Amino acid sequence: MARWSGGFRCLLLLVAIAFIYTQVRLFKAQSEYADKIAVAVEGENHCTSQMRFLIDEISMQKQKVVVLEEKVRRQEEECEQLRTLVQNLEKKGVKSLFEQVKAPVAAVVIMACNRADYLERTINSIFKYHSTVASKFPVFVSQDGSNSDVRTKAMSYDQLTYMQHLDYEPVDTERPGELIAYYKIARHYKWALDQLFYKHNFNRVIILEDDMEISPDFFDYFEAGADLLDKDKSIMAISSWNDNGQKQFVHDPYALYRSDFFPGLGWMLSKPTWDELSPKWPKAYPFINSYFQFSCRQFIRPEISRTYNFGEHGSSLGQFFNQYLKPIRLNDVTIDWKKMNLTYLMEDKYVNHFANMVKDAKPLYEPNLVLKINNVDGDVRIQYRDQTDFEDIARQFGIFEEWKDGIPRTAYKGVVVFRYKTIRRIFLCNMILKKLI
């Protein structure tokens, strides 16, 4: 009995040991499981936190997208409203203009951008002489961009038609350091001239800038020039400007010349010429590149300018203004150009006409040209060897020294003509060109 009792106690001890061991293992397993659960819960919380952060970010981005979409929608609506407004104004303006006349001499377009005060001065100068020829010369303002002051100013005039060029395409300059403005100007000119020649079907267009005043005979001058432009296909454009038109270099308001150099600053172009120019219109500097496309064609220019450029501040940053533009003489004489016989300007006649003037001039040689001229009666002929020599002579008198692509400003067949403080004409002649002399 004692033995059985002792064995039972041993069995109980083993059972107790086994139970304790099992409990210890179970506790250890539970602890490990609890740790894993804690790690899992922590990971889940982290994922939840990250997910909430991402949801918040997505929500914020969606809000930004919605705002941007709304902004784009409003801009598109504004652009559409502007286009509709411009189309209505153009239809109304052009319709009323064509009700008055079937065949205008030329449309007059003022190229504008962001100078409302300059534009007002230009428009007022035009309308000072426009009332009697309104049916012959319908006036347009073409604005590049959306400057509200310019648009408001242009639309405040009932006598003109407003056009707006909206160009949001980025500009890629061809060379480093180039001004984007010249690319924008080229695009605007092409758009405006396409509109006037092809949409409104004008036969001729006079191009002005928003910083110009005109002379009393401006419209008569261009009406007479229109006949030349139609009859002589060697004339690319009629210009109202003389680069060497400063007060001390001009005298005769009736004198007109042919030139191989494009004068610009108030010029009339015909539709056939634009048909050739438009497809080849360059990305920038069109009035320099145009010369290459029509190197065999010439321009008519006056001795005394029919436009005056007061734009000291603009895309060219005031280049040459004080020295060459500010002293320009604007014609103040009323001339009846309809009574003038301008056939001498036709290509077949002008060569001999000009050559005779050059031949009749007295030859004069260096040095001290300015001093020698004062002792000579009548016109004077001075020869130059090359561009450097020309620049030295031009500097003595104060005329434009600049050349473009081998051509001095105002030159015809290499000859530059101007007056010097009297009615005497001075002819600067290229020694290489013997045909004229």
Automatic annotation (TrEMBL):
Residues 58-92 form a coiled coil. Belongs to the glycosyltransferase 13 family. It catalyses: N(4)-(alpha-D-Man-(1->3)-[alpha-D-Man-(1->3)-[alpha-D-Man-(1->6)]-alpha-D-Man-(1->6)]-beta-D-Man-(1->4)-beta-D-GlcNAc-(1->4)-beta-D-GlcNAc)-L-asparaginyl-[protein] (N-glucan mannose isomer 5A1,2) + UDP-N-acetyl-alpha-D-glucosamine = N(4)-{beta-D-GlcNAc-(1->2)-alpha-D-Man-(1->3)-[alpha-D-Man-(1->3)-[alpha-D-Man-(1->6)]-alpha-D-Man-(1->6)]-beta-D-Man-(1->4)-beta-D-GlcNAc-(1->4)-beta-D-GlcNAc}-L-asparaginyl-[protein] + UDP + H(+). PANTHER family: ALPHA-1,3-MANNOSYL-GLYCOPROTEIN 2-BETA-N-ACETYLGLUCOSAMINYLTRANSFERASE, PROTEIN O-LINKED-MANNOSE BETA-1,2-N-ACETYLGLUCOSAMINYLTRANSFERASE 1/ALPHA-1,3-MANNOSYL-GLYCOPROTEIN 2-BETA-N-ACETYLGLUCOSAMINYLTRANSFERASE. It is a single-pass type II membrane protein. The keyword ATP-binding does not apply. Its EC number is 2.4.1.101. It is an enzyme of class 2 (transferase). It is found in: Golgi apparatus membrane. Residues 1-22 form the signal peptide. GO terms for cellular component: Golgi membrane. Keywords: Coiled coil, Glycosyltransferase, Golgi apparatus, Manganese, Membrane, Metal-binding, Signal, Signal-anchor, Transferase, Transmembrane, Transmembrane helix. It comes from the Eukaryota. Initiates complex N-linked carbohydrate formation. Essential for the conversion of high-mannose to hybrid and complex N-glycans. GO terms for molecular function: alpha-1,3-mannosylglycoprotein 2-beta-N-acetylglucosaminyltransferase activity; manganese ion binding. Its cofactor is Mn(2+). This is Alpha-1,3-mannosyl-glycoprotein 2-beta-N-acetylglucosaminyltransferase. Pathway: Protein modification; protein glycosylation. Pfam families: GNT-I. The cofactor is mostly bound to the substrate. Its main location: Golgi.
